[in-house]
Amino acid sequence: MWALVDPYRVKVTRKIESLWVRVLDVPTALAARPWGRDGDVVLEVTDPLGHAHGRFRVVTRDGTAEVAPTDADADVTLDADTLGALYLGGVATETLQRAGRLTGPGVATFGAMADTGPAPYCITGF
Q1: Residue 55 neighbours by CB distance under 10 Å
Q2: Cβ–Cβ < 8 Å for 104, 62
Q3: C-beta contacts of 17-20 below 8 A and 24+ residues apart
Q4: Contact, 115 vs 85, CB < 8 A?
Q5: CA distance 20 to 63
Q6: Strand order, beta sheet including 39-46
Q7: CA pair distance 102, 117, nearest whole angstrom
Q8: CA 82, CA 106: separation in Å to the nearest integer?
Q9: Is 38 helix (H, G, I), strand (E, B) or coil?
Q10: Residue 117: predicted pLDDT
Q11: How would you class 30 by CB atoms within 10 Å of its CB: exposed for 0-12, middle for 13-18, buried for 19 or more?
């Protein structure tokens, strides 16, 4: 499903969405989440609404991150909706890369930093 541009155009017999996230403030959100490995990548986030749009250097050390806007070349490019999926940890970066949702030479590094597990679980529908 991650490879589909518009998953709602596919005929589905049943689809349940319990939880999703839209990151509005990239530096604050990424600094608040846990990180699995030390690393340094520049993310380029595209956002048609403009909230999360920009390039951000993410430097992780000892499970925490410092995130700041930058003009440096991007190591990883992704859309705001993909960032929301990655933020919660429900899908691996490798899965999203294979689906064409993450591109760039730094995807493996970013995956080692970001893929911490376990997958999120939402017990309440809303």
Answers
A1: 18
A2: no
A3: 18/122, 18/124, 18/125, 19/88, 19/120, 19/122, 20/84, 20/85
A4: no
A5: 23
A6: 64-69, 54-61, 39-46, 76-79, 102-103
A7: 19
A8: 16
A9: coil
A10: 75
A11: buried
Q: What is the pLDDT tens value at each position of the chain, 126 positions in all? A: 777 888 778 877 776 666 778 999 999 999 999 999 999 999 999 999 999 999 999 999 999 999 999 999 999 999 999 999 898 888 899 999 999 999 999 999 999 999 987 777 667 766
Residues counted in the chain = 126
DSSP assignments along 60-125, one per residue: EETTEEEEEE--SPPSEEEEHHHHHHHHHTSS-HHHHHHTTSEESTTHHHHHHHH---PPP-----
Here the tokens at position 52 are: 């999360």
- pTM value is 0.82
In the numeric block, the tokens 């403009």 are attached to 50
